[in-house]
Amino acid sequence: MIPTRREFLEVALGATGALSFGAAQPGWLRRLPGRAAPGAGETALVVVQLSGGNDGLNTVVPYGDDEYGRHRPTLRLAERELHKIDDHLGFHPRLGGIAALYRDGLASIVQGVGYAGSDRDHGPALRAWHTADPAPGRETGWLGRVADAAQGPEHDDTPVMFVGPIAAPFALNATRAVVPAIGSLAELAVDAAPARPAEGGAEGAERSLLAHVRRTERAAQALSEAVARARDARSRVEYPSGPFAADLFTVARLIRAGAGIRIFCTELGGEGFGGFDNHANQLGNHCALLQQLSAAVSAFLRDLEAAGLLDRVLLMTFSEFGRTLAENGRRGTGHGAAAPVLLAGGRLRGGLLGVHPSLTDLDQGAPRPHTDFRRVYATVLEGWLGLPSEPVLGGSFAPLPAFAG
Amino acid sequence: MAPRHQLSRDPAAAWAPYAPDAARPWTLARASHLYRRAAFGARAEDLVRALAGGPEQAVAELLAPPGDLTAFDRARDADETAACRSGRSDAVRDWWLRRMILSPHPLRERMALLWHAHFALDAAQVKEAPAVRRHVALLREHALGSYRSLVEAMVRDPALLASLGAAASRRGQPAEGLARALLERWTVGAEHCAEEDVREAARAFTGTFVRGDEVIHVAREHDGGVKRVLGRTGPFTGEDVVQIALAHPATAETVVRRLWRAFVSEVEEPAPALLAPLARSFAAGLDLGRLAGTILRSSLFFSDAARGQRITSPVELAVGLVRSLEGLIATSTLARDLDRLGQRLLHPPTARGWAGGPAWIDRVTLLRRQALAAALLAEGGAYGGRLDPREVAARHGHADVNAAADFLADLLLPEGGEAVRSAARAELSRGAPGEALRRFAIAIARSPEYQLS
User: Fold this and answer.
1) B362 vs A178: CB contact, 8 Å cut-off?
2) Mode of pairing for the β-strands spanning A263-268 and A160-163
3) Which residues of chain B neighbour A178 with C-beta distances below 8 Å?
4) Can you give the pLDDT at residue B4?
5) Closest CA to B309 of B358, B343, B273
6) Residue B218 class from Cβ within 10 Å (0-12 exposed, 13-18 middle, 19+ buried)?
7) A161 touches chain B (CB under 8 A)
8) Low-confidence residues of chain A, pLDDT below 70?
9) Cα angle B199-B203-B204, degrees, rounded to a multiple of 5
10) pLDDT of residue B296
11) Shortest CA gap A65–chain B (Å)
12) Phi, psi of B418 (to 5 degrees)
């Protein structure tokens, strides 16, 4: 009997991972090199890490709740400056681009995301989000596990990539797969090798290491040419300046090039504790970061919209925790718990998912999460990438009704 | 992957020392193979010495280089200690790469790198950069010594204990990280121990604490009760468990398999019978230098069964190229590029180190390897043009462009590269000689053949 792709994977993964994909989309990650092209219909997920603990209460602002203004004498945002969502909530003044996406049905907000008993230290909290496991000790990242599962017996291309100037987040740590990182498109635009006489024989079928590298080289050259074309392709959309916008520009070009990358990870806020960690003088810092986020995400989606690729992309943000309701006397906030997650893309249902967390029933001064973050992961894995989420997340988490029917 | 070589089926013949004869002469290709596997890459002078002295002497000099290493070591130790005062473990990584490039004892650094993948310290879990430096120094000190001493040093290394989450192991709350790593990865292997062994071994290690830069033993936190580990029963301490695990016959095989992957093949799973003679003799003294020597001297190592059977890791690729071209480049820049190729030194992706093998190469990582080779050899740019192929060729007496090209091809890829070599010659027809030879060297270093060793 000829083994199915699924049996193949199970054999290849053996006792180590035992991840297996459902029969519905058996080989979704195993695109043959060179076959990917714009219009091929693949979906891409872009995961954006907001490093440092984003203040969700000044991102999606509960201006209609008296508790908000009462606890934030200097950090509260004036109602008239907000981009209103409804008579209770509004986007931060600098989130104009995202507010416009939201009005167009191209963005959704998942409210109150976190996990029970969440950690208030950056390291463990970030590790929980990266591993999709609040218990310490998990060795691989949730996106790394997807990359591992995609490693077939023939060493297929890794469909996961980090784009950005810092070291790749732990979410991408994998046991078997090598998850590459790039800083700019130039790193993939490599001139063609000098022409060589064809290497003899039935090399295509040969299973030696050299044959593997030679096959990969041909596919790599095709990718490089596609990237160079996409890089030079005119865009009607102007991206703002700054490294984060440059990273999303890179991602957009790779999607346009049909590079076959299904999951991109990027980051805003930087290394160390991260720019969103504002214990003092938060207002100006936070404004600048949200401005970057909004302008870059908006340019990214409008760019893909103009290229007719909007329905192929979904972007999600996350941060290790939200922040305390009350400001701390230094015009900053402390580490919190629940925070909103932004989803943006062409096939969303739009609107709000879940209610805003209560501002009177707090956990150590911060809003309590009501939606486990792994439900968001399950949503993007199942609803967007067509992957069963349970083997990746190590448990069953109900996806959210985020997508248009 | 490859069809099994005849030697793989005859252990005695496989591990017998290679003796050159008419059918298997001692050639540039064989000498180059030895240096690529055991020393990151060959320098011209290495190849000249090796060809003149024969394989036995070449291996002996790799294991114990002639001359005095202490001056080199002392200068590097001082540099690294000073660099650590900045408090960043990135400095340790940068200086280690520098040592790999410059070391007169490259096999020792190659083995230290292998032990790094084996013990898989994650510097992100270690607060103090000097502790990370000391960890790497221990890997180096014991790299070719006794595996017993190496493991004994590891189980009381503050940095590694912190990395394993075993910085505080109490009687009522034994930390399992160390016991699990010791049994499942460093000694008998997961297939030879059960969860129960790990739990019992963890009890034996209770009372171990990291305090500042040392590991201390707190008697009242030690569980002095009877444990049952790997079939032995007694009121064991952590040291007892280490000795029990090291004495287990499966431990020798674990280590022999490690060296098989590093030196012989990543793609062929060796039959147990093939490894048995090596494991038997290694078990007697756990002498790593002797084991490495046996493998590197062997007929199997110099046979076709061992050639082209590994993908060079990003670190080996870059360090080998820089060594061969007798230069020195900014290793902080290099470390960042290696990180992007998937090998972030001192931050392995998991406690199993890097899986390596064919997974190093896919479309994206291959393009990035090619871009790195081009950047290292470019006239300007990120690496400042500090490697100069033309100058190296001239230094060894090859001033003419064509002779220089032959020299560079022999140096970097003396076998299996005829097509690569002739295609690269196209680069010689334009531009000034220095520039043309840079492009020639790039064409070789980016070829599929050069990604293998």
Assistant:
1) yes
2) parallel
3) 341-342, 354-355, 359-360, 362, 365
4) 64
5) B358
6) middle
7) yes
8) 1-41, 197-207
9) 120
10) 98
11) 41
12) -60, -45
Distance from CA of B126 to the nearest CA of A (A): 13
Cβ pair A155:B359 closer than 8 A? yes
Show residues of chain A in contact with B88, CB under 8 Å: none
- Decide if B333 contacts B383 (C-beta within 8 A): yes
As a whole number, the mean pLDDT across chain B is 95
Alpha carbon distance A326, B440 (integer Å): 64
H or E segment at A91? strand A90-91
Nearest to A297 by CA among A235, A341, A244: A244
DSSP state string for A303-364: HHHHTT-GGGEEEEEE-S--EEEEE-SSS-EEE-S-EEEEEEETTB--EEESPPPPSSSEET
Please tell me which of the candidates B340, B358, B420 has its beta carbon nearest to residue A180.
Answer: B340
First vs last C-alpha separation in chain B: 15
Selection from A387, A370, A368, A369 nearest residue A379 by Cα: A387
Q: B333-373, pLDDT tens digit by residue?
A: 999 999 999 999 999 999 999 999 999 999 999 999 999 99
Burial of B124 (0-12, 13-18, 19+ CB in 10 A): middle
**Local structure of residue A186 (DSSP, 8 states):** G
Listed in sequence order, the residues at least 6 apart from A45 whose beta carbon sits closer than 8 Å to its beta carbon are: A262, A263, A264, A313, A314, A315, A316, A380, A384, A385
Nearest alpha-carbon partner for B449 in B400, B416, B425, B421: B416
Structure letter (DSSP) for residue A53 = -
Distance CA A56, CA A63 (A): 13
Spatial separation of the C-alpha atoms in residues B73 and B62, rounded to whole Å: 16
Please classify residue B245 by burial: count the beta carbons closer than 10 Å to its beta carbon, then call 0-12 exposed, 13-18 middle and 19+ buried: buried
Backbone angles phi, psi at B77, to 5 degrees: -60, -40
Separation of alpha carbons A263 and A141, rounded Å: 13
ipTM of the complex in this document:
0.94
Which pLDDT tens digit goes with each residue over B110-164?
999 999 999 999 999 898 999 999 999 999 999 999 999 999 999 999 999 999 9
The partner residues of A160 in beta bridges, in order of sequence, read A263
User: Environment class of residue A355 by beta-carbon count within 10 Å: exposed (0-12), middle (13-18) or buried (19+)?
Assistant: exposed
The residue count for chain A: 405
The partner residues of B232 in beta bridges, in order of sequence, read: B229
The reported pLDDT for the residue numbered A14 is 31
- Determine the Cα angle at B376 with ends B374 and B380, to 5°: 90
The CA-based angle B71-B77-B81, given to 5 degrees, is 150
Q: What is the mean predicted confidence (pLDDT) over B196-201?
A: 98
Q: Is B141 exposed, middle or buried (0-12, 13-18, 19+ CB in 10 A)?
A: middle
Helix (H, G, I), strand (E, B) or coil at A266: strand
- In a mutagenesis test of the B interface, which of A209, A215, A221, A253 is the best target, namely the one with the most B β-carbons within 10 Å? A209
pTM value surpassing 0.80: yes
| Rounded distance between C-alpha atoms, residue B163 and residue A85, angstroms | 46
Q: Which residue of A has its CA nearest to B305?
A: A208
Chain A stretch 235-274, residues whose beta carbon is closer than 8 A to a beta carbon of chain B: 260-261
A122 contacts A351 by C-beta, under 8 angstroms: no
